[in-house]
Amino acid sequence: MRGDTKLLIFIGDGMGGRPIAELDSQTTIEAANTPAMDRVAREGSCGMLDPIAPGRPAGSDTAHMAILGYEPEKYYRGRGPFEAKGVGIEVRPGDVAFRCNFATVEGKMVVDRRAGRIKSGTVELADAIREEIPKIGDVQIIFEPSVEHRAALVLRGPGLSHEISEVDPHEPDVDYFESHALEGAEDVAGANKTARVINEFVKRANEVLQDHPVSKQRRAQGLPPANIVLPRGAGTAVHLEDFEQRYGVHGAMIVEVDLVRGVGEYLNMDVIHVDGATGGQDTDELAIARAIVEAFETHDFVLANIKCPDLGGHDGDCQTKIDAIEKVDRAIGHLLENLDWDCTTIMVTADHCTPCSLMDHSGDSVPIAFFGNGTRPDDVDVYGERACSKGIMGNLRGMEVMNVMLNFAGRAEKFGA
Q1: In this structure, is residue 1 part of a structural domain?
Q2: What is the pairing mode between strands 139-145 and 150-156?
């Protein structure tokens, strides 16, 4: 059915891993019970994926850009604009946008970068910041909470630059940093001004949040208070070609975090919000799967992402990550039972590897499997790093994925006569 096949990219965020001694040298995918993904691998075409390039760790934003065929090296302007777009903040030319964490500090020492993965109270904290810090000098402060500990910040005013250093140290038990202009910044004066504004914002946010009722309540409950905001990922407005114009398919995105939603918003894809999709371990994976089935009633293409495998990797918690991978598998199991695979093609993969041993993203390849219309079975029997490395698809890069998907669907345009 040339041109009619539906396309689904299903991403288990950070699902890839490295062998772990405590798991008999298996990865967390290999140790998990994944009958649905094993069927996809057994009946489909398998391989390995380097989201950006071999050995190059990918962020979730750059990985999703590449997988959707938008070259990060050409288009990427930092994480901040995607996070801001995802929470509904317009990023205008001249603005500088940041991804932020509500965090816990003692003095200047970062005790917990995620404030215990705070799940409630961040709306009240953000309200207090907006009320108490509307401007710093001639710079407007635009601040919105996102999922759990995440938030977005946009600075709007004259003479700003994104060429500043990070405040967030990206690890606990060390002091957070003072921002400064990056060495070699093109606009030194603008970078110096922006760094001063960020340093003042961090200081004043700490003063606002330190004794906020939400912080007091969390301390009384033995939980880490969200008593500071740590901005990171400074970036400027980005222009990306409309997804439907580029590929001729009407696309939707069903994801759990605003960073990735922002990518979809910039591509003018329909971003579908799902009740129960929390971005945490308690996410309702079957609600996400049902939303995918429903989305195909009006769309040709869906990209879906379940966030929780990444959390276990960042926390170094193998069992939590295994449980999350099994959530992904249950969602895929629902899809196997409820989609027409004679006219649907799915790609199952991760956007990057987050090994529990590293507790951060790595540049390792991740397993990939294509199933459904147009695919050719190989000799791979299960889904996982070792098994998929022997598959027919070999090693792909993220920028090649859309070509492969369109080819399976009979939607690829011929090159040449």
Answers
A1: no
A2: antiparallel
Going by C-beta distance under 8 Å and a sequence separation of 6 or more, which residues neighbour residue 175? 107, 108, 109, 110, 169
CB 201 within 8 A of CB 218: no
User: What is this structure's pTM?
Assistant: 0.83
Distance set, CA 337 to CA 225, 330, 334 (Å):
44, 11, 5
Q: Are 110 and 175 in contact (CB under 8 A)?
A: yes
Closest by CA position to 231, among listed 61, 83, 360, 119? 83
Please check whether residues 214 and 283 belong to one and the same domain.
no
Average pLDDT in the chain: 95
Kindly tell me if the per-residue pLDDT of 414 is higher than 70.
Answer: yes
Does some domain include residue 221? yes
pLDDT digits (tens, 9 = 90+) for 65-85: 999 999 999 988 888 898 899
* 3-class DSSP state of 202: helix
Q: Token digits for 361?
A: 């993203």
Domain that holds residue 312: 6-75+239-408
Counting Cβ atoms within 10 Å, is residue 23 exposed (0-12), middle (13-18) or buried (19+)?
middle
Picking from 364, 262, 353, the residue whose alpha carbon sits closest to that of residue 310 is 353
The pLDDT value given to residue 3: 55
Q: State what percent of residues in the chain have pLDDT above 90.
A: 89
Does 86 lie in the same domain as 68? no
Of the candidates 113, 28, 71, the one whose C-alpha atom is nearest the C-alpha of residue 354 is 28
For residue 203, what are its two tokens? 């200081």
Count Cα neighbours of 177 within 13 Å in the Cβ-side half-sphere: 14
pLDDT of residue 137: 96
Task: Determine the longest span between alpha carbons in the chain, in angstroms.
Answer: 72
Average pLDDT estimate for 125-144? 97
The β-bridge relationship of strands 6-12 and 301-306 is parallel
Strand arrangement, sheet containing 301-306 = 270-271, 251-254, 301-306, 6-12, 344-349, 366-372, 45-50, 394-397
Q: Which residues on neighbouring strands pair with residue 294, listed in sequence order? A: none
Please report, as a single letter, which amino acid is at residue 173: D
Q: Of 288, 283, 279, 301, which Cα lies nearest the Cα of 254?
A: 288
| 20-69 tens-digit pLDDT | 999 999 999 999 999 999 999 999 999 999 999 999 999 999 999 999 99
User: Can you tell me the mean pLDDT for 129-138?
Assistant: 97
C-beta of residue 370 within 8 angstroms of C-beta of residue 408: yes
Nearest alpha-carbon partner for 81 in 169, 19, 142: 142
Please check whether residues 110 and 216 belong to one and the same domain.
Answer: yes
